[in-house]
Amino acid sequence: PDIEPLCLDLADWDATEAAVGAAGPFELLVNNAAVAVLQPFLEVTRAALERSLDVNLQAVLHVSQIVARQMIAQGVPGAIVNVSSQASQRALRDHAVYCSTKSALDMLSKVMAMELGPHKIRVNTVNPTVVMTDMGRINWSDPQKSAAMINRIPLGKFAEVDDVVNSILFLLSDKSAMTTGSSLMVDGGFLVS
C-alpha cells in the first residue's frame, strides 16, 4: 500500500535523476528493468547494443547511485538486489548483447558490494534461468527453441515469477545479513549441467 510507482524511461539519465532523487527515503532497492534484443552476433545492431547497455547496465548503475547516496546520507543500512541472469555465465545463441550486459551487471554488483559494504549496504544479484514473464514467453514460446534449454535444466522447467521473488526477498532480508557480492543462481541447475 505504500508503493508509489514511477513511470519513466530509465535510459533517460536526467529524468531518472529527477524522479528517483525526489522519491525515498530508501532502505531497499531491486533493479529489475531489462531488455532482451536477440540477434545473432554478426547481425547485432548499434541500436540494440546501445538500448541494452542503457537499460541493463547504465540504469542499474545510475538508480543505485541515487538510492545508495540517500541511504548513506540517512546513515541506515540497506540492501540492493540486481536481477541478472544465468546468461551472465553461459553463452547462449543470439544473446551476444544480453549475455554481455548481464555479465557486466554481475561485475558491477561485486564492485558495488565492495565499495558500499563499509556503509552497511549489501549488494547481490539473482541470476534466474528463463522466467515465465511476458518477455520470457515472447522469447521462449517456441517449443523447439525451449526444448533445448529445458533439456539442460535438471529440474526440467523454467522459473516462475515467485521463484525469483522469493530469492530476492531472502537477499533483501536480515536472513542474508552476511551475504554481499554474491550471485544467487535461480536456474534449476542449468549451470551445473
From TrEMBL:
The gene is Der. GO terms for molecular function: carbonyl reductase (NADPH) activity; L-xylulose reductase (NADPH) activity. One of its GO terms (biological process) is xylulose metabolic process. It holds the Pfam family adh_short_C2. Belongs to the short-chain dehydrogenases/reductases (SDR) family. This is DER reductase. Keywords: NADP, Oxidoreductase. PANTHER family: D-ERYTHRULOSE REDUCTASE, D-ERYTHRULOSE REDUCTASE-RELATED.
